[in-house]
Amino acid sequence: MGPVLVAIDLEHKDHADGALRSAGALARMDAVPVHLCYVLPYGFYSYVAPYIPQDVVDDTKKRAQADLDGFKTIAHFEGLTVVTHVLQGGVYQQILRLAKDIAADTIVVNAVRPDQHVSTMGPVATHVARYAPCKVLLVR
Questions:
Q1: Taking Cα atoms as reference points, which of 89, 75, 71, 93 lies closest to residue 6?
Q2: Among 104, 132, 109, which residue's Cα sits nearest to residue 121?
Q3: DSSP letters for 22-91
Q4: pLDDT in tens, 45-93
Q5: Cα dist from 36 to 64, 84, 97, 98, whole Å
Q6: C-beta separation of 128 from 94 below 8 A
Q7: Cα(41)–Cα(25) distance, integer angstroms
């Protein structure tokens, strides 16, 4: 079994516990590493990129890295190797690229849209589930 990749939306990190718990349980079963990732959408929309100063992008990456590093210490990952990735570009494209690069066995994605009254999957979870090169666990 290969690594477990967890895609975290830091805008909704308070809803990530179920995905983190599931990833920890999967990784612990076969003693594989957990990879946490967050994708900055900067640069994906070329018409916006020229208006975002590089220092803003750099600062956002640092804050995102600090948030991901904070997840390393939670109980779900005790005794496991946890690797973090802050990526930039199209969200689902970067998740799928990383899954391929690390030869992930499973991608864990939080499939709840907290801003919706009805529980529906967002476009990122839908695209990851459709095009992933490995198993996908959608957590509600």
A1: 71
A2: 109
A3: HHHHHHHHHT--EEEEEEE-TTTSTTTGGGS-HHHHHHHHHHHHHHHHHHTTSGGGTTS-EEEEEEES-H
A4: 667 777 888 898 899 999 999 999 999 888 889 999 999 999 998 899 9
A5: 11, 5, 14, 10
A6: no
A7: 29
